[in-house]
Structure formats: structure tokens, C-alpha cells
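Problem statement: downstream parser choked on a complex file, so we are re-checking the raw output for the S-adenosylmethionine run. The parser issue turned out to be on our end (a line-ending mismatch), but while we're here, posting the original submission so the record is complete.
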Amino acid sequence: MNANPKQITIHSSLRHDWQLSEVEALFALPFNDLLFKAQTVHRANFDPNQIQVSSLLSIKTGSCSEDCGYCPQSARYDSDLTPEALMPVATVLKAAQQAKADGASRFCMGAAWRSPKDRDIERVVEMVQGVKALGMETCVTLGMLTDTQTQALKDGGLDYYNHNLDTSEDYYSEVITTRTYQDRLDTLARVRDAGINVCCGGIVGMGESAQDRAKLLQELANLPKHPESVPINMLVQVEGTPLFGLDALDPLVFIRTIAVARILMPESRVRLSAGRKEMSDEMQALCFLAGANSIFYGEKLLTTDNPMTNHDKQLFARLGLNTGGSSYN
Ligand code: SAM
Ligand code: DTB
Ligand code: SF4
């Protein structure tokens, strides 16, 4: 008999041994069957009418040394962006206060770094402490971390660290050459080991194959523990970046990606992330039906536009979605 029955009860449905053929078979289901399955899993684990809302702020913008082909913040591409140094703490806290007043429960701070310097971490920790003091959850995304930096963030009270795998290991080197997939996995392991919640997902619509999308989700689901938050971004095409001008992904394939993520990671918050500005209200409604239960909220993502706050509020009302309640995950 197991000595810890509670643990078994909580995690009995969580798998970390998904085979690629199984993930591909989910993607291949008739759309209605896939959505029904995803919604069934969703309802078994969450209030289906509740979504979590996070607001983003770029605390350090542009001039990044990396060559991520999707990103307007890389110094290598001419994307018409004005670089900005790391913001003062007071400016960040003012933005967090506004986000809270608009209804966000989590404040996510992003920096265009390959990896932070130790002195940067000190200021980021002050930001985290200030945002927490407002009663909001905190998330940061700063690039690759050392053990010491990870521990400093944990000691500062950080709730979540965002670090995306972005795509499959196979396709990764087509999009990014200045760091490896293993570098990403190493930082994710550090964050997990330090006891910080993990926010990790990817981007679709980058010219990847259907198998790449299946492999990305397989990789996420087979991590030793599922990320608490799984952002699924639709590529925001920015002029000047190498991925600008690609054919848009079939919206139904995006919705399928959300549904498969929900089925593979039943207890995680699946976030309908970048790209909402280009999506119809009806498409977003289908993403929620497919099991997305978190969004980025506020009129800017990091450097690109997000839907207007008022429009989102109306959409939540039209769909009967509430953004309060449990902040679990
Ligand atoms: N520099 C850090 C890093 O790369 O981890 C943190 C900031 S970076 C902008 C955070 C994430 O934003 C990336 O991993 C990527 O998934 C997402 N992202 C960046 N540009 C995007 C775009 N044009 N469309 C969709 N997602 C994007
Ligand atoms: C994530 O997965 N998406 C967010 C957040 N994590 C940091 C970033 C989206 C960025 C979209 C392009 C931009 O606004 O610069
Ligand atoms: Fe730099 Fe992050 Fe953009 Fe890559 S995704 S260029 S690391 S800011």
C-alpha cells in the first residue's frame, strides 16, 4: 500500500511519458472530438468559466545579443524599436499598480537579455518585492540564469519564471543559433529545483511542421513536472525580423494546439498568449473552449500591441468568463 495516498490522488492522471505517435493522434482527431476531449479534461480540473489574467511590462527593451528569428528586440534586426535600459523600480511599480486597477492578478516583467548580470538581479528583486507588496503575483523572464541568480530570485519571493522552449528541438536551430535547446532546459531545471513555479511554452506559426508542434508539446508534457503555466503564442510577425512575411497558420491548427496542450497537461494553466490582436473574438472563444484559461491582458505585450482592455472586458462579459477567483497556477 502506498504511504502517501494523497499524492497518488492528485497526480494519478498526470503523465510524463507521452509518445510522439500519441500526441500526433490527438492532433489528428476530428475537430469536434478533440475539443470535446479537451473540454472534458478541462472541466475535471478547473472551473470552466474562470480565467487568470496576467499583464506584461518590458522592463528592459531591445539591443539583445541573441538572434531569435521571431523577435523584434534582437540587435541584429532592423525592427524600428527604440531600445530602453533597465527601468527604475518606481516606474515598474506604477505600471503594476495600473495593471492591478485594470484587473490583472499577475504582473510579468520581461527583459531583452541573453542572461542578466548579477547587478541587474538586485534591481529585479526590488521590483518583485514591490509588486508582491501590491498583492499581485510576480513573474519575470530574463533569459538564462545561474544557480546564484535563481536563488536570489527565489529568496526575493518570485512566484513564476517564464522561459519558453519556443519550438521542437529539431526546428530550434532554424530559428535561433546563439543558444541551444539544452541551454533552455538547463535554466528550466534550475528554476524548478529552486522551487519557483515554471511558465514555459512556445510559439506556433513560425513555419514549423505539424510534427514540430507535436514535439514541442511532447517535450513540455514530458518534463519531470508539468510547467504550472504553458503560454501558447501565435507568432506576431514584426517587419524587419527574419520570420516576417510567412504564411499565417491556419487558425484551426492553433486551436488544436491549445486543445492538445490541455489534454497533455491537465492541471496546468494554458495561456492564450501573443497574437490575440489578430484573432477574432470567435477564435478566442474556441481557444477557451479548447481549454485555454489564462491570457495576457493590457494594451501591450512586451513591444507589440495586444487587444484594448475595454474590448477584452466586453469579451469576458459576452462569454460569461470571470477573471477573479482562484489564483492557483
Ligand atoms: N530574453 C528572454 C528570453 O528570450 O527568454 C526573455 C524575453 S523574450 C521576448 C520572451 C518570449 O517572448 C520568447 O521566448 C518568445 O517565446 C516570446 N516572443 C518574442 N517575440 C515574439 C513574437 N514576435 N511573437 C510571439 N512570441 C514572441
Ligand atoms: C510569452 O510566452 N509570451 C510573452 C511572455 N511570455 C513574455 C511575450 C510575447 C512577446 C510578443 C512580442 C512582443 O510584444 O515583443
Ligand atoms: Fe533576446 Fe529574448 Fe528576443 Fe531572443 S527572445 S532576441 S533572447 S529578447
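For whoever reads this later: Strands lie at 52-60, 106-111, 137-141, 160-162, 197-199, 202-204, 229-234, 269-272, 294-296.
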